[in-house]
Amino acid sequence: MGKRIGYARVSTDDQNLDLQRDALALAGCSTVYEETMSGKSADRPELGHCLKALRSGDTLVVWRLDRLGRSLPDLVGIVSSLEREGVAFESITERIETTSAAGKLIFHVFAALAEFERNLTRERTRAGLAAARARGRKGGRKPALDDRQVREIRALLRDPEIQVTDVARRYGVSRTTLYRYVGSPKSSAVV
């Protein structure tokens, strides 16, 4: 039988971990990783330590689902990763545990909802881009150099005394960007 390891998180310093500590202790957790960190932050060091400590046969226990995942897709990703490693998952408040068939079913419904949410977002994005294109707008970043600037740069680079680095600095772009617009220095000299 593996260990029951808890993870507790609050978002701000003025919040208290006592409720979560008590619930995780009652749930039989031998170790509890705790941190004060916004759930929106991808960098949660204690969660990283917790996940590294888990071994096949162990169970990760949280007080509530939102303590673990930043979003439904994030939560599904973490729990799926645990499942691949042979680690069970349990959420005390929602009474979800992946050791039983019913718990797995509930979690897979969550996974399906997360996939549905991703697909809806993708469809909305595509529809929005298509509508913008139909109105003559292009998506993406504004070009670093306009046609007039490209002509000027080509003219400048015909002079063998002028350095590519100086031209790039003058126009506020990198040498790579400059080459992307005007080609290699040899082809610019010919133009």
UniProtKB/TrEMBL annotation:
Residues 3-136 form the Resolvase/invertase-type recombinase catalytic domain. CDD domains: HTH_Hin_like, SR_ResInv. PROSITE patterns: RECOMBINASES_1, RECOMBINASES_2, RECOMBINASES_3. The active site is at 11 (o-(5'-phospho-dna)-serine intermediate). Keywords: DNA integration, DNA invertase, DNA recombination, DNA-binding. InterPro entries: Homeodomain-like_sf, Recombinase_CS, Resolv_N, Resolvase-like_N_sf, Resolvase_HTH_dom, SSR_resolvase. SMART domains: Resolvase (SM00857). SUPFAM superfamilies: Homeodomain-like, Resolvase-like. GO terms for molecular function: DNA binding; DNA strand exchange activity. It holds the Pfam family Resolvase. GO terms for biological process: DNA integration. Belongs to the site-specific recombinase resolvase family. This is DNA-invertase hin. The gene is hin.
